[in-house]
Amino acid sequence: MTSLQTSVKQIPSDGGYFVPLASLADKVYAYSSSGTFTVATWAKGGAAGGGAPLSTINAIGAGGLLKDMGKTVVSSLRTFRKVQLSMQGAFGNNSTLSTFGVGGKGDLAGEQYFTGYIELGFEGNGERAPVAQFGR
Question: Which residue from 3, 20, 71, 98 could staple onto 57, CB 3.0 to 4.6 Å apart?
């Protein structure tokens, strides 16, 4: 018998969701291979706006949810959680009805199936995204 304690870490299949409490424009980030965060293409506000996907997470009850993907990144004492936009309806040629609410394409930089990172702001570091967690 070994004195080392071992455990297996898995992403739970019943991962929760985050509900927007205010606009998430410019508050969902893409994480690059160089280790930097930039605003995700689909979550940009203003003139370069993300369009229909962003409109689903601009306020409470707008129709979009952010699914917790089970990955955390800590950078410069700031904590980010990977999420994926889940929405109802069809945007352009991309119907989400047959994909359980998942849209986007996997090959577009900054838009990989509408995934991104939101800042959780633990321990007073960073600005927390205006979301509430549920479904756990």
Answer: 20
> What pLDDT is stored for residue 126 in this prediction?
72
Who contacts 96 (Cβ-Cβ below 8 Å, separation ≥6)? 87, 88, 89, 90, 102, 103
Contact, 20 vs 60, CB < 8 A?
yes
CB 5 within 8 A of CB 56: no
13 in any annotated domain: no
Q: Report the number of distinct structural domains present in the chain.
A: 1
Rounded to an integer, what distance in angstroms lies between the CA atom of residue 109 and that of residue 87?
20
Residue 80: inside a domain, yes or no?
yes
Residue 39 to residue 48: CA distance in whole angstroms: 11
pLDDT single digits (tens) 13-23: 556 889 999 99
**Is 4 part of any domain?**
no
